[in-house]
Amino acid sequence: MLIDIPGQPTLSALLKEEKPEPSLRHFHAPANWINDPNGFIYYNGLYHMFYQYFPYGKRWGTMHWGHAISKDMLSWQHLPIALHPSIHEDRNGCFSGSAVEKDGKMHLFYTGVHYQTINPQNVHTCLNEDFISSQLHISSKDGFTFHNFEDKEVYLPTGDGTMYDKRHTRDPKVWKEGDAWYMVVGSTIEDQQGKLLFLTSKDLHHWSLLNTYTSGNPELGWMWECPDLLQVDGKRILIFSPMGYLFEEGCDPNQAICVPVSFDPQTGKMEMLEEPVFFDQGLELYAPQSTVDENGRPVIFAWLRQPETDDPWIGQYCYPRSIYYEDGSIRFRPHENVMKAFRNRADWNGFDYSVPFMAKLKLGEGQEADLGGLKIRYIDGVLSTDRSELLNERGLAVGAQARLNDPEAELILFGDQHIFELFANDGKQVISQFIDSWKQEEPAVPTELYV
Ligand code: FRU
Predict the structure, then answer these.
(1) In ligand 1, which atom is closest to the CA atom of 286?
(2) Which residues are the active-site residues?
(3) Whose CA is closest to 324, among 451, 218, 428, 440?
(4) For residue 9, what pLDDT band results from cuts at 50, 70 and 90?
(5) How many whole angstroms separate alpha carbon 350 and alpha carbon 187?
(6) Deepest of 12, 30, 158, 372, by most Cβ within 10 A of its Cβ?
């Protein structure tokens, strides 16, 4: 059975239409809770997005993998849940992971969690952190059929704690290089320092440990979630989400960061080559995951952690982002499908800000813009945003900052009902954050509007 969402294309329409009309709403579940993007892959002519999903409410709980498909990464058809707890190892959740294709089949890798102690008040959460993790694999002949009861394989059982942590080891990300498969998994050293495991395989079923990495710097967080090692413009970039990284009021201590690294596929030895930087300066996007798009370029989605609203769903993803390494730094730009989708010039007069929009503007040094109540300033080379007029009382940080050091800030802002994404100077910096609602006002500085 397929679930048709009003305003979204149906599967049959998606399969038939060459280019469906893009839907510009940011990705979210039909209802209830989502967090990390999982198993993101371009497979048999469609993008598949799986996602951490709690189907019973607007809160985190026993994790399933929700599933949606798209031709353009903008219009999504939601499909039935792909993975759900079914065996001893994943009875309390199918945590994050990734997808690859081999011999026409889709292979999913994820972490199964098993609570040792049941929480009598809420069976969907763990009591006293008393849980164990295992790494699991399931394949699908077509990307639509998942035999949860028959096909799950445990390829990395719960550790004994010496090689890797038996609780906090999770989020396998798999890729291919030459004729070998590689996997990076996030972990911890005794809940004090983040650690990565690198594994290798010839057949996707048998995996052996190649190497491990730790920075030796406890300031880089105590556990590293959702590692993703990708190749961009001749560089390898590690994107990961350390827990306990940032201690600032109104911000989550867990933050997604990225850093150029060296990696030797023979030995699995990795080194960081620079200081890590934030994935997004809004400090609300988390657990990014990349895949390679139909043109062979890496593309990334990330989860916007957001408070509850009146919507039936909670949690949404940024628009697909392309990543580049240029002039010695990592840059993120909206994927070309996003830029193509906002093709109609519109008029601010009477514009309803709850419709997804793209705005283009420039700020010189010392200038400020007000867009639907979002204040954007460019002062002393620092770009900053202030969403205080767009938030209910929530205890969230109202501002965010990013350094540009250019005479002018050329800005592209994407706005939707509950999110803005602000790209500055060709992807040098991006600030994305949650908002409750926009103010219906025309901008004071000249700004081009597209819908
Ligand atoms: C990151 C994360 C992952 C884990 C998943 C559980 O947000 O904590 O490390 O696999 O979410 O939902």
Answers:
(1) 7
(2) 36
(3) 428
(4) low
(5) 51
(6) 372
Tell me the CA–centroid distance for residue 355 and ligand 1, in Å: 31
Give SS3 for 15: helix
C-alpha span between 249 and 268 (Å, rounded): 38
Any atom of ligand 1 within 6 Å of the Cβ of 63: yes
Q: Is the CB of residue 90 below 6 angstroms from any atom belonging to ligand 1?
A: no
Whole-number Å distance, alpha carbon 403 to ligand 1 midpoint, is 30
Assess contact for 427 and 411: CB atoms under 8 A.
no
Burial 120-153 (b: 16+ CB within 10 A, else e): eeeebbbeeeebbbbbbbbbbeebbebebeeebe
Task: Tell me how far the alpha carbon of residue 62 lies from the centroid of ligand 1, in angstroms.
Answer: 11
Q: What is the mean pLDDT of the chain?
A: 94
Q: Residue 448 has which token pair?
A: 């081009």
Average pLDDT of the segment spanning 440-447: 90
Burial class (CB in 10 A: 0-12, 13-18, 19+), 380: exposed
Q: What is the pLDDT of residues 377-419, one digit of tens each?
A: 999 999 999 999 999 989 999 999 999 999 999 999 999 999 9
* pLDDT beyond 60 at 56: yes
Q: How far is the CA of 391 from the centre of ligand 1 (A)?
A: 26
- For residues 315 and 304, what is the distance between their CA atoms, to the nearest angstrom? 6
Q: How confident is the model at residue 161 (pLDDT cuts 50, 70, 90)?
A: confident
Q: Is the CB of residue 35 below 6 angstroms from any atom belonging to ligand 1?
A: yes
- State phi, psi for 31 to the nearest 5 degrees: -160, 160
- Atom 9 in ligand 1: which residue has the minimum CA distance? 225
Ligand 1 within 6 A of CB of 95: yes
* Closest to 228 measured CA to CA, from 217, 236, 239, 219: 239
pLDDT at 58 over 50: yes
Averaged pLDDT, 86-109: 98
